[in-house]
Amino acid sequence: MRKELVDLSINGRRHELAVEPNRTLLDVLREDLRLTGTKCGCDDSSCGACTVVVDGQPMLSCLLLAVSYQDSQIQTIESLATQGELGALQRGFVQEGGSQCGFCTPGMVMSLHTLLESTADPTEEEVRAAISGNICRCTGYMQICRAVRHAVAEIREEEIREKERLHA
Ligand code: FES
Ligand code: FES
């Protein structure tokens, strides 16, 4: 199949590459760009492991054609750590055992990252609704809910410290 030149914005960087029009965003992320944090758990839209954030919304990258997302801002799990340090949500997963085999974790984290962007202190119901499309076969989801609480508390403490610094 003839390739098309595409220009994708991923984690704040533009990537120009030639791809076949039938390639999924998931395949392009993993195979062409070697952003392998995003996982392929089923390839038929039933597991959520491939979740990335597209224009602020969690989406299944195994369902998206890469050529159709040239005008979008795409965010993958690789964007959440800064200078090698995990983000608050990722630290919550580590601290609370929210990641066991870890296969579902990148997709879970991206769904929950989107939730926390819009809802600073979500209820457990909201957390469970946000990950209703993400299947975890290991944790039973309790640890994942605790990981979110952990992250919310950490983010709040950091905000308080920041305010104190500004008023010192
Ligand atoms: S790989 Fe996309 S939903 Fe499972
Ligand atoms: S940690 Fe293993 S599938 Fe979720």
Précis, in short:
The chain has helices spanning 25-32, 88-96, 105-118, 124-130, 142-167; strands at residues 4-10, 13-19, 51-54, 57-60, 73-75.
Protein architecture, described:
The chain is of the alpha+beta class and 168 residues long. The chain has 2 domains: 4-79, Beta-grasp domain (Ubiquitin-like (UB roll), Roll); 88-167, [2Fe-2S]-binding domain (DNA polymerase, domain 1). It has 5 helices and 5 strands. It has helices at residues 25-32, 88-96, 105-118, 124-130, 142-167, and strands at 4-10, 13-19, 51-54, 57-60, 73-75. It has a 5-stranded mixed beta sheet with strand order 2-1-5-3-4, with helices on both faces. Strand 1 (4-10) and strand 2 form a beta hairpin. Helix 2 (88-96) crosses helix 5 (142-167). The longest helix is centred in the last third of the chain and has 26 residues, at 142-167. It is globular. The relative contact order is 0.14. The model has no long low-confidence stretch (mean pLDDT 96). It binds FE2/S2 (inorganic) cluster (FES) (2 copies). Residues 99-105, 136-139 line the site of one FE2/S2 (inorganic) cluster (FES).
